[in-house]
Amino acid sequence: MAQHSRVSNPIPWAQKFLLTDTETLTAGISMVVKKNIDGKERKAIYDLRNDTSIVVKPADKGGATVILNRETYTNIALEQLMDETFYRILPQNPLGEYTKELSYIIAKFPQPHKDELKNLIPTSPKPGVFYILPKIHELRDKIPEEFSDWISFAKEYKMTPPGRPIHGRL
């Protein structure tokens, strides 16, 4: 019977377990935080973060971090947006209309599912965010194999990586 009460009302049991477990795990541990970078490195990160002339993004593949001149990044993004195969300027924001249409579709569902599906209707829809992830792996493929330092080669010849467009939320 005690086992059943735990399952039917798990919150108090879980809270008690977590508190006890946390106390056991943290017993005798000091909360001194050690810095893993020195002051110069911290300042360099601060300066990069606040430099408006550059854009720092993760690479599309490989886990690298890419630093691009802001003008170069903007040109890569505009090149993507100018491709009329995928993008066009809309006469108005369609989000309100899409929300109405979604509501209409969900209203047609049978009752057991309708209530669950109503949670999919956004209460205040916002447009997604567009940004570019540099495809440096494609840049590497364009450089002759005899150049082991391909990053220096790309910089010297002012080669720009193509961008992968991302539409989503940040």
Brief characterization of the structure:
This protein has 170 residues and is an alpha+beta fold. The chain contains eight helices and four strands; from the N terminus they run αααββαααβααβ. It has a two-stranded antiparallel sheet. A two-stranded antiparallel ribbon has the order 3-4.
Description of the molecule:
The protein is flat. Residues 1-7 have low confidence and may be disordered. It contains eight helices and four strands, in the order H-H-H-E-E-H-H-H-E-H-H-E. By secondary structure, the protein is an alpha+beta fold.
Task: Report the portion of residues in β strands.
Answer: 5-15%
User: Helical residue percent?
Assistant: 40-55%
Uncertain residue ranges: 1-7
The count of β-strands is 4
Strand arrangement, major sheet: 1-2
Order of SSEs: HHHEEHHHEHHE
Give the quaternary arrangement of the chains. Answer: single chain
Principal-axes shape call? flat
Biggest beta-sheet profile:
2 strands, antiparallel
- Our Rg estimate from Cα atoms comes to 26 Å
Number of helices: 8
How far do the termini sit from each other?
A: 47 Å
What structural class should be given to the helix and strand makeup? Answer: alpha+beta
Mean pLDDT: 80
Q: How would the blueprint of this fold be written?
A:
Blueprint (H helix, E strand, L loop, with lengths): L1 H7 L1 H17 L12 H12 L3 E5 L6 E5 H12 L13 H13 L3 H7 L11 E6 L1 H6 L8 H7 L6 E6 L2
Helix pairs in contact: 1-2
Observed structural traits:
4 strands, disordered N terminus, 48% helix, 8 helices, 13% strand, two-stranded antiparallel sheet, alpha+beta, single chain, 170 residues
